[in-house]
Amino acid sequence: MRADGPGEGRRMDGCNRTETVMTRNPTITTRDVSWRSPRERAELGRAARAHAPRSSHAEFEPGPHRPDPVDVIEKQSATRVTELVPIRYGRMSESPFRFYRGAAAIMAGDLATTPLSGLRVQLCGDAHLLNFRLLASPERNLVFDINDFDETLPGPWEWDVKRLAASMVIAGRENGFTDAERAAIVQATVRSYREQMRRFAGMNNLDVWYARQDAEQLQAIAAGRLHKRGRAMLSETLAKARTRDSLQAFEKLTEVVDGERRIASQPPVITRARDLMPGLAGEALEEMIRELIARYRSSLQTDRRHLLSQFTLVDMARKVVGVGSVGTRCWIVLMLGKDGEDPLFLQAKEADPSVLAAHAGASRYATQGERVVAGQRLMQATSDIFLGWEHVHAPDGVERDFYVRQLRDWKGIAEPSQMVPRGMRAFGELCGATLARAHARSGDRIAIAAYLGRSDVFDQALTRFAETYADQNEHDHQALLDAVASGRVPAEAA
Fold this sequence. Notes:
The chain is an alpha+beta fold. The protein has helices at 38-47, 69-77, 85-93, 96-102, 104-111, 157-174, 179-201, 205-210, 215-225, 228-241, 246-253, 273-276, 279-296, 302-308, 357-360, 368-379, 421-442, 445-452, 457-486; strands at 120-123, 132-136, 142-146, 153-156, 213-214, 254-257, 260-263, 270-272, 312-319, 330-336, 343-350, 388-393, 399-406, 412-413. The protein starts with 37 loop residues before the first helix and ends in an 8-residue tail after the last helix.
């Protein structure tokens, strides 16, 4: 099995092991904190203000050697499915916010130039507001959590917070919110992160680990924060999320042909594997996917492995997903259980190196799929029971990494375009608190809380950063539009 950097085959024991931080500031190491007292850990956090003042996080100035944003996107596209790349450019062209969703690699390079406290956590790596959503727990409860971990990697905690804050401004601009309304949304988001990190700093380790936001807590928050319309929208979203499961996907994505259930092709978004390649090449592709699913079982817990063994694979297709992920190899797999009406839909998604790796250090896992799964399990309060990974030798001779999860399992997503300022502010607070909980599980929550302090200095700094970066994102989006208009890159709607 291949490695993606130094330390191949070694496991990452969270982020509280000895770890030298890449930074322009004096180096701070985050060793196993168990031997440090809470007072010492707090002093470590406050000391970090000397070389990275909280107010300095307002800064963002693109340097003279900043890469062309279109070059960055094209470099990513070079390893992706050629015929799908125009769809990626088409989706990113639609609006500054859709561009932002696909521009994690661009922002990773920009964040690497900003001030750092030197404290590290497990990062989501793409913590924009649409990557926070409703998910199902194994106990069949709805919880609110981070969803996308394609870019997860240990790194500076500030990077996730800044990506979240900037996404609030970009979404607010698209909704026509005023400067003051956007500022209030970002301040509420960052304040929630800061205050919740302080709360987690005072909690016992197990209490932090078990913390989560479930549907009942969301409705209690909404009762005190949202108007009638907002509460109604939340109730509707909760109800809709419970219907988005394998059975719903089964009804929507399959058809019966000659008495057999199969995935319905809807090219280019969904294309059955056997329709992609004729003859022996198609058979080799199907065999690779079958082998991937068969072998990935070993990455599951034994009880879940047993459950999966009760399903039979009956069909598979390529699916175009997301915005930034368009062009990566993503397969959906239809499996049936006790009879033809007992479906399970799995999604096997290609895992490339994180866009953060060039700036935060390479993964310590032997494969990128395991990197994604390990990061997701560390950051989420609870994860999909079928979440796992595998490494395959593809028919084209290239070795690729994948992670696997259920295609749909009670997922509910926010609709920023329908939010009023009050609703987006409440949503931002929820996202900030959730991100703080995810970071508190892996990093030194006491040191981070002490660095942030009780004042709003950091909140105000990120409000200015978010507006400045939203300006940069608009410039980058325009650069893509110009590249499409000139014929430099092709764009298609899908």
